[in-house]
Design brief:
CATH architecture of the largest domain: 3-Layer(aba) Sandwich
Strand content: 5-15%
Radius of gyration: 21 Å
Number of domains: 2
Number of strands: 13
Order of helices and strands: EHHEHEEEEHEHEEEEHHHHEEHH
CATH superfamily of the largest domain: NADH:ubiquinone oxidoreductase-like, 20kDa subunit
Largest sheet: 5 strands, parallel
CATH class of the largest domain: Alpha Beta
Strand order of the largest sheet: 2-1-3-7-11
Distance between the termini: 59 Å
Helix content: 25-40%
CATH topology of the largest domain: Rossmann fold
Shape: elongated
């Protein structure tokens, strides 16, 4: 039996909800297949109050070993690094996380808030929030860049707002089964298998993208990059291949721009949303997967060569002849 402890910091709970939407396998079947005992989860466990404190004491006293610690949500460090903005049973939450991290064999930061700080670090970050081992794109966070778990691993980041249920279940499985090596993580400690592609890859609007046939309103069929702020060409995830909601959807399949929610820079440095920032006619957020000079040179030629059917359909809400 493998023990899992799941904690929630500054979080909307969206990653737990996403995890519970797992289908292949379901969340409960994943626990069963991996022989996981959920020691405690703030939403899923029945223990409260003193019962939780007893569990925590048994963990810290090494009566309950923790094979996997999952942290959802950012870590409040303020004010002045005391962590007293978020007290959990009269003790700063950050102190609980520090203690449990040193007791755990493996650690996952699930969701962009836990991985990099995310939404709650936006603007001036007045509550002094941080990711578990990163703050945005810089190693450090709460635990520090040199922290390693009992098995010698850094915190494995599984970002997303929320994280895809497959990313959570499959990372959990790979870690507990020993099917993943540290070399399989990227520079932000994300599993490469999910985060080495772009959301742009597999997007059903890519024919429009190639010919720069662009939508000007949401839910039109054209590409959302030129005018509506889509960042699928910057977002490192397999969203348009793996799909969501019963393997049917993604942001761009629903006619909505990608906001690059798996990025360490989300949300502040991905703004503005829903409009494309430009210098002259050139988007500032040029694609990662092509040389910038090539993109600028080819874009005009692509638009000139655009078939008439794509021009019509780009600004239509349904297929037109």
């Amino acid at each position: 039996m493998l023990n899992l402890l799941w904690l929630q910091g500054a979080s909307c709970g969206g990653d737990t909800i996403s995890f519970l939407n797992s289908e292949q396998p379901s969340a409960l079947n994943a626990f069963k297949m991996l022989d996981i005992n959920v020691v405690w989860h703030p939403f899923l466990s029945k223990e409260q109050g003193d019962e939780v404190l007893k569990i925590f004491e048994d963990i810290l006293n090494k009566k309950i070993p923790i094979h996997l610690l999952i942290i959802e949500g950012a870590i409040p460090l303020g004010p002045d690094d005391t962590g007293e903005f978020f007290l959990f049973h009269e003790r700063p939450f950050k102190d609980w996380v520090m203690d449990f991290a040193h007791c755990s064999e493996l650690i996952m930061a699930v969701g962009t808030c836990a991985a990099f700080g995310g939404v709650v670090t936006a603007s001036n970050n007045i509550n002094e929030m941080s990711g578990v081992q990163f703050f945005h794109n810089k190693e450090g966070g709460l635990l520090g860049r040199d922290f390693r778990s009992k098995k010698g691993w850094p915190v494995v980041n599984v970002p997303g707002c929320p994280s895809h249920p497959d990313w959570i279940v499959e990372t959990m499985t790979a870690l507990l089964k020993g099917w993943i090596k540290q070399s399989d993580l990227d520079k932000f400690h994300r599993p490469r298998v999910f985060f080495s592609k772009l959301a742009h890859h597999g997007c059903p609007k890519n024919e429009f993208y190639e010919f720069k046939a662009s939508a000007v309103k949401f839910s039109q069929q054209g590409c959302l990059f030129e005018f509506l702020g889509c960042k699928g060409t910057l977002c490192e995830s397999d969203c348009n291949e793996r799909l969501w909601l019963g393997r049917t959807g993604s942001c761009t399949r629903g006619g909505f721009p990608c906001i690059a929610c798996t990025s360490p820079f989300f949300p502040d440095k991905q703004r503005p949303y829903f409009t494309t920032r430009k210098v002259g006619d050139i988007p500032v957020t040029l694609p990662q997967d092509v040389p910038k000079a090539w993109f600028i040179g080819i874009a005009g030629m692509s638009k000139t060569a655009c078939p008439e059917r794509l021009k019509k359909n780009a600004v239509s809400f349904k297929q037109v002849p």
